[in-house]
Design goal:
- The structure is a single chain.
- The protein has helices at 2-21, 124-128, 136-150, 170-186, 205-220, 238-245, 251-264, 276-284, 290-296, 315-322, 348-360, 375-381, 383-394; strands at residues 55-61, 70-80, 86-96, 108-112, 154-158, 198-203, 226-232, 335-340, 365-370.
- With 406 residues, the protein is of the alpha/beta class.
- The protein has two domains: 2-236 and 330-394, 3-Layer(aba) Sandwich (Rossmann fold); 238-322, 434 Repressor (Amino-terminal Domain), CATH 1.10.260.
- β1 (55-61) and β2 (70-80) form a beta hairpin.
């Protein structure tokens, strides 16, 4: 019975990706409005009085504007940003049409797509409604999301960067994830509830948000107990990431990190360390998506935009990025973390150091160093291990204690 349901959903997911990658859309579907022009995203009155995770608005949508075999809703919910301001977040809830046949309640997986961007048109909620032309990260994650749906899990995908698109803002991202889970859990039509086991997963930029949520959960959201958390390609040591990619294919990521430091920590004064070309870059790309910057800045170096010789090593830059590094607090839930030994985007050393910090604080971490070559192959090849780890936690199988490494 399960196998019969797999192929229609996989075929539909692949069809959706094909439609979007080729720019084709169903004849009856009008292009969705950009989030900044969509009234559904507008902050409602009385936001401050609502509790974190409270559902403020809801709407049923067609995933990618296509008749796929999954029920999909978008929820606007209340969260609190890293400056402790009430904020209207956005999340997308997906529930397979099949009846949950496992033991207990249907699990809820919080799936963090690598938003990696500076503008709301890059948000997953926009792409999931069929928004173009950006959203490549959302599309590449769809096979993994489909795999979770095929297991019968409900999936919640939050725009954890928030309405200001604050990439690499750890507290903002973690709170956005946790409150998105609260909203999905309390949204009755979604078919999950207080008894549903909760898990979280993310790769690369999505891993950053996932692990910040896991770190913040005990203090910020004790009512959201994780059964388990899995993450791969974990961004750790942000200056090392920027230094490693500049001058190469992923050089735009280095400049994206510079953007986020200026945006998230203006008091650090990093903007004052840029030259005229760097200041123009900040203005031109203020609302860009990460994939656009990768194409635009192929082969460039940060020094071309800086007024000092080594911006990435400057104390102001390093102090600003240090505030966003993972590892300050160990998550209280079992973790499954993995990373390619030859990751060409995020150096292995930062991952190893993060695992060591978590383990030294008593976390239960299953850590795997993949022999698959590179960042993207590891994302594909190691996902089944992460998915199986979460399935075991949802089923109540105890995780290994301590810090076993593979």
């Amino acid at each position: 019975m399960r196998r019969r349901g797999i192929f229609p959903l996989l075929a539909a997911a692949l069809l959706a990706v094909t439609f979007l990658l080729t720019g084709i859309s169903p004849a009856h579907a009008a292009p969705p409005a950009h989030p900044d022009a969509d009234p559904f995203y507008a902050e409602p009155a009385g936001l401050a009085a609502a509790a974190n995770g409270a559902v403020l608005k809801s709407r049923s949508i067609a995933l990618f504007g296509l008749p796929l075999p999954v029920q999909t809703w978008q929820l606007q919910y209340r969260t609190t940003d890293s400056a402790d301001r009430p904020t209207a977040g956005m999340t997308t809830v997906l529930v397979p049409n099949t009846t949950w046949t496992g033991s207990g309640a249907r699990p809820l997986l919080s799936y963090q797509i690598a938003e990696d961007s500076l503008g709301t048109r890059c948000a997953p909620s926009y792409t999931l409604r069929g928004g173009l032309p950006v959203g490549l990260n959302t599309l590449t994650d769809m096979p993994f999301i489909a795999a979770a749906l095929l297991r019968g899990w409900a999936v919640v995908i939050s725009d954890y960067e928030g309405p200001e698109s604050r990439f690499l803002d750890g507290v903002n991202s973690g709170r956005g994830v946790l409150d998105g889970i609260r909203a999905a859990r309390d949204f009755a039509p979604g078919g999950v509830g207080a008894a549903s086991p909760i898990g979280a997963y993310g790769y690369s930029g999505g891993a950053f948000a996932t692990l910040w949520a896991a770190q913040l959960q005990p203090a910020y959201a004790p009512d959201v107990p994780f059964a388990g958390v899995a993450a791969g390609g974990v961004p750790a040591d942000l200056p090392a990431i920027a230094r490693g990619v500049e001058g190469g294919v992923q050089a735009g990521l280095a400049l994206l990190i510079v953007h986020t430091v200026v945006r998230n920590t203006p008091e650090a004064g990093v903007a004052d360390l840029l030259n005229e070309r760097g200041r123009a870059m900040l203005a031109e790309d203020a609302h860009a998506c990460g994939e656009e910057l990768v194409v635009k800045y192929h082969g460039t170096r940060v020094a071309e935009y800086a007024a000092i010789p080594d911006l990435l090593g400057h104390p102001a830059f390093r102090a600003a990025t240090a505030r966003q590094e993972l590892g300050g607090v160990a998550p209280a839930t079992p973790l499954y973390l993995y990373h390619s030994r030859t990751d060409d985007v995020i150096p292995l050393a930062g991952f190893t150091a993060l695992v060591d910090r978590y383990c030294a604080q008593g976390a239960a971490v299953t850590a795997s160093v993949s022999e698959l070559p590179g960042h993207n192959p590891s994302a594909v090849g190691e996902f089944p291990g992460a998915s199986n780890f979460l399935a075991d936690r949802f089923a109540g199988v105890p995780a290994a204690s301590g810090c076993p490494r593979r």
